[in-house]
Amino acid sequence: MTITDIKGTVKLNNGIQMPYFGLGVFKTKDGKQVIDAIHHAIENGYRLIDTAALYGNERGVGDAVRASGAPRKDIFVTTKVWNNEQGYEPTLRAFDHSIKRLGLDYVDLFLIHWPVKGKYKETWKALERLLNEGYIRSIGVSNFLQHHLEDLMNSSSSVPAVNQIEFHPRLVQQSLLDFCAQKKIQVEAWSPLMQGGVFKIEALQQLASKYGKTVAQLVLRWNLQKGVITIPKSINQLRIKENANIFDYTITPEDMAAIDHLDKHQRVGADPDNFSF
Length: 277
Known about the structure:
The strands form two sheets. This protein has an eight-stranded parallel β-sheet. The chain has a two-stranded antiparallel ribbon with strand order 1-2. It is globular, with a radius of gyration of 18 Å. Helices cover 38% and strands 15% of the residues. The two termini are 34 Å apart. The protein is built from ten helices and ten strands. The protein has one domain (9-260): TIM Barrel, CATH 3.20.20.100. The mean pLDDT is 98.
């Protein structure tokens, strides 16, 4: 990944250019709250917006994108199919509901939210159909470990463009990053700030001070230098602007390694091999 500025992109395995920095809207209320957050983000150069059916705010996301004044082709919109709507026909119906709520002609990236056992292969076939029919520009997965990816690819001729995973200094998953790089699957981070947990890590506080940056800015820059797309969530206008102020410095290889070594295999979300929702 070549890091330039906030509008920079990375080429996915199907040739689509995806912004490597964006706004996540998990737990952001539909309506004014999500619309305002997205408008603040777009005003500050963000071009990637990540939502999901589960978040309950697709309608507001679509409203914000249309009202932003930015050309549709310049805004990259991701949404996801939830677990209880997986399977071939249910996924087609779920996507139809999502795109109607969004009010958009197409979605840039559609993800399988979690690897529901016995369902995700049929779900993937539905995504392939929607991609081939032009309703989606790229398809991918979320929360897939290496064995999930191998199982999926062994029964499919296509490879996910993206794998969105929990990724932060306490959960690096380097072997999964390496596997995805080998297969040309772009990794994307959810919960890059560990739901605020990164602010309590003294080593990160010290490194952030060294660079004259906040802990959030340090961690988000580390994400990008690891080759990982990142989508920090915020509804605060100043924080949205502050989070994006990461393109005027570079973390040294030694400090990158120091952040890597903070890994404790510690999750703030569910284990993809053991979830019940």
